[in-house]
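Title: [Solved] Lipoprotein 3D structure

Original question kept below for reference.
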Amino acid sequence: MKPTTNKFTYYTLAVLFLIFLSCSSSKEKESESSFIKSILFHFELKSIPKELKGEKISYSLKFYFCPIPTAKDCYTPVSINTQTTSRPIGSTADQITFSQELPKTWTHLSIRLEGIQKVYGKYSPGHNPYWIQNTDSLIQNPKITHVFTFVSQENVIPNRKQEELAYKFSPILVFHKDKKYLPTNIEKYANFFQSKEYSLPGKDIRRKSLGQTTWNYVEFPDLRETEKQTHLYYHVRYAKTTVSGTQITALPGFRDDSNYWYEVGNGDMVISYWIWYDWNEGPTKFGNIHQGDLESYALLISKEGKPKRILLTGHDHILLDTDFRNINSLKNHPILYVAKGNMGSDGGNPTSAYGGYTVKLQAGNALFNYISDPWDVFPSFDPENSILILPKDLSEKALTNVKIGSGITDKSTVLDDCECKDIPEPTRFVDARGMIKQRIERLVAWEEPGWIGQTADKDPDGHHKVDPKLSSFFRFQGRLGKHPRSDLRIGELHQYGESPENAPFKTNIEQHYTFESPKTERSHTDREGNYGPKFLGDNSTPQK
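Solution (posted by the thread starter after getting help):
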């Protein structure tokens, strides 16, 4: 019996082996058939600006294998190909069709339009690069079609309307009476403007995505004791604004703050404001000290000019994003509080819509945390201990009876993350006439950098006039101040933070109304404390 059994066993194994080979071969054939070796591309250019007449356009294709965008080497392209148009641009439209071999393994494709430097910052062709992800749909239809349509980057909201809205919602700023560094203006540095370069930190994503090793900064002299006039910087845009690189299909780090475009959408608008401080002393004297500080807040308003939401930023976070009725305002001017630090520190200038509370922070390392115990300490609306900087046109009489608190007693409706649930907020009325320290002397509109000093194309005002003292700042991309990167100096017991990025007026990633619609209440929490709502209001809360 044994010989027969052995023959049967060998025969069975041979059959199974042949079946295995057949299955493997079948799978390989199936895999090969699902792999696209080439794909057809069709690109069109529309509304080409006249400045590009005579230029040769090319299309750069970069394929990446990046299943996990945070992986170390995924930003190195696995394949790079370029297709150039056969003739220079001669009209307002152009197109190209070509077939391109594909790498066997890839996840992301960037398609960049090259040869358009003459209109960079003036006309946007849309997302550039335009991103494609490798999906099953490409197997079914191996063709990629895309239209690059150029649009002017001018702001189509008339200057007069922008100015009216900016004045209408300019802030009432509340400070501790002993605050040393009050808001000033950036124009006083105009004669000292000189761009320099510094090395980007090793972990900066631009090193991977763009191959960028340096960035720009401007070092200012110490002028903190002179020219203290307060100016407020603003920009009004349609809320439906898009920035290149924010595609959901894009790899992180390819955002281009100079390539954006406006759409009217439902007519909602965003008013962005920036407040300039000459110095940031940090939450303590030990940490986050740097020259220059540019704090911001934004309002989402309806096409009729009625406030809907307010967003405040600080410490590289969205500190608050809430309904405008959940804060105090006077004649549409939001009442905002600026924190000082503890242990005698003047503070890092974060702005809150509520006063009389504290938030505990991180000092950056365990030693400084232990030594300095950093806090944001927000002032109260208190005639004895606080001072105000007011809009220039707000009368002193309007401050006779300022409402602080919600003005309502029904607390049955609460927010999930609202600290106000268990904290009674009795409404009080304050005579604030004696709190006035100074006025916001000037509101300055931030102009589109690519159009400065030029005759308009689409702008309804027909021009882009800018104060010569401001043109260099409006065009500048980089950091404002002589501390462009963090620097821990244990010997001095000092942590120098980063000077602020120049206001990319419509592309500050914190000013999220540009990129997404607010859907939920948001506020930043740290170790102890919350910058979120301290009361909930209704239509009666804003003081007329």
